[in-house]
């Protein structure tokens, strides 16, 4: 036999169950990041390449060969290698520009792969628009050639004008060449043969490094990760991943970790930008912010004799008005101990404090010992 409860009692029980479920529901997890987003892996890095070359085909916007001696000598040398003797000739072309060519060689790039290239004018060329880069070897820090670049340039800026006015948009003396260089030499690095791998934290921190090591050890099931210092975690490759180091790193990169950062206030005085972390705390302080403004206004007046006067001359008489504004309407505000970042910002905004005024206030709070954060000035 099935009992039927009155609707009022049934509603009350349902509401009570809902409240209980809400009370015992798990709290939302803290914001976490993947290990791959906060560390760099040993050996997985780019290498910078640089080269010197010539860009031809410019529409009269190239280097002045009379002023850019290196462009002239490079042009003569290039022609001689092609069997053209231009030595001693009066070269007066303005369709050539000397350029510096830079590129980043990605990790594990194979021979024949293509990489992007940036081309920058070296002389007094006005624009590289429409130019063609001639064969340019790109060298690494060891002096070896790792790639060769050649091809047409893509320039986003332009410059146009006449004798009285000139308009320039963007930077016409810098161009890009997507897939403009071919890799000629590979960097030999046997990643899968490594017995251990070091993870370098992008923001070194003892707590974060310890959490990374704990997450890896929990995933592997044995203590293979060890925190060496605030910025390095050493991982020994387990037996089941022998010769498969890349697969091990793939799995480690996806592990979630809650990174911890030092409370810091970053100030850029040039732009008046202030960035404060959420862990910034202050002790109880009283803050008063006021500006003393002195405004001096000069209003010269002309004094001249009355009409038909027998004597006198016209003179300029100085009239100076001085206005002092001590900003007396500003009041003091008390910030209680341990206030959060939001409370601090709200309290200072209530005083009418702008970003420029906030910089000396933060420095003063730090000097008093009440600000528990590191101040970093850019």
From TrEMBL:
Lineage top rank: taxon: Bacteria
Biological process, per Gene Ontology: bacterial-type flagellum-dependent cell motility
Predominant location: other
Compartment list: Bacterial flagellum basal body
Gene Ontology cellular component list: bacterial-type flagellum basal body, distal rod, P ring; outer membrane-bounded periplasmic space
Signal peptide positions on this chain: 1-25
Annotated keywords: Bacterial flagellum, Cell projection, Cilium, Flagellum, Periplasm, Signal
A Pfam family matched in the record: FlgI
GO function term, MF aspect, one: structural molecule activity
Similarity comment: family membership: Belongs to the FlgI family.
Protein purpose: Assembles around the rod to form the L-ring and probably protects the motor/basal body from shearing forces during rotation.
PANTHER family noted in UniProt: FLAGELLAR P-RING PERIPLASMIC PROTEIN FLGI, FLAGELLAR P-RING PROTEIN
Subunit structure: The basal body constitutes a major portion of the flagellar organelle and consists of four rings (L,P,S, and M) mounted on a central rod.
Protein name per its UniProtKB record: Flagellar P-ring protein
Taxonomic source organism: Limimonas halophila
Gene field: flgI
């Amino acid at each position: 036999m099935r009992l039927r409860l009155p609707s009022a009692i049934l509603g009350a029980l349902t509401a009570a169950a809902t409240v209980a479920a809400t009370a015992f529901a798990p709290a939302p997890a803290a914001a976490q990041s993947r290990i791959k987003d906060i560390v760099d892996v040993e050996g997985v890095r780019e290498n910078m390449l640089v080269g010197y070359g010539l860009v031809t085909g410019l529409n009269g916007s190239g280097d002045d060969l009379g002023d850019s001696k290196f462009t002239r000598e490079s042009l003569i040398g290039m022609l001689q290698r092609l069997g053209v003797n231009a030595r001693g000739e009066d070269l007066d072309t303005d369709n050539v520009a000397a350029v510096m060519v830079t590129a980043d060689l990605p990790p594990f790039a194979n021979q024949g792969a293509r990489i992007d290239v940036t081309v920058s004018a070296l002389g007094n060329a006005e624009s590289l628009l429409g130019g063609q880069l001639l064969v340019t070897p790109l060298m690494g820090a060891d002096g070896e050639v790792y790639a060769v670049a050649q091809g047409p340039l893509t320039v986003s800026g332009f410059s146009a004008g006449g004798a009285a006015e000139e308009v320039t948009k963007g930077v016409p003396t810098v161009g890009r060449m997507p897939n403009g260089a071919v890799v000629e030499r590979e960097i030999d690095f046997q990643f899968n043969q490594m017995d251990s791998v070091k993870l370098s934290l992008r923001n070194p921190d003892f707590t974060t490094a310890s959490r990374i090591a704990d997450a890896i050890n929990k995933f592997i099931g044995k203590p293979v990760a060890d925190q060496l210092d605030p910025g390095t975690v050493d991982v020994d490759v387990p037996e089941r991943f022998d010769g498969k180091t890349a697969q091990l790193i793939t799995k480690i990169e996806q592990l979630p970790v809650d990174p911890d950062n030092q409370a810091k206030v970053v100030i850029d005085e040039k732009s008046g930008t202030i960035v404060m972390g959420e862990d910034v705390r202050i002790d109880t302080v009283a803050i008063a912010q006021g500006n003393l403004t002195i405004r001096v206004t000069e209003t010269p007046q002309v004094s001249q004799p009355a009409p038909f006067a027998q004597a006198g001359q016209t003179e300029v008489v100085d009239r100076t008005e001085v206005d002092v504004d001590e900003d007396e309407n500003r009041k003091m505000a008390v910030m209680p101990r341990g206030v959060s970042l939001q409370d601090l910002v709200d309290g200072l905004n209530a005083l009418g404090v702008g970003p420029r005024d906030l910089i000396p206030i933060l420095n003063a709070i730090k000097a008093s010992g009440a600000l528990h954060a590191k101040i970093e000035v850019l």
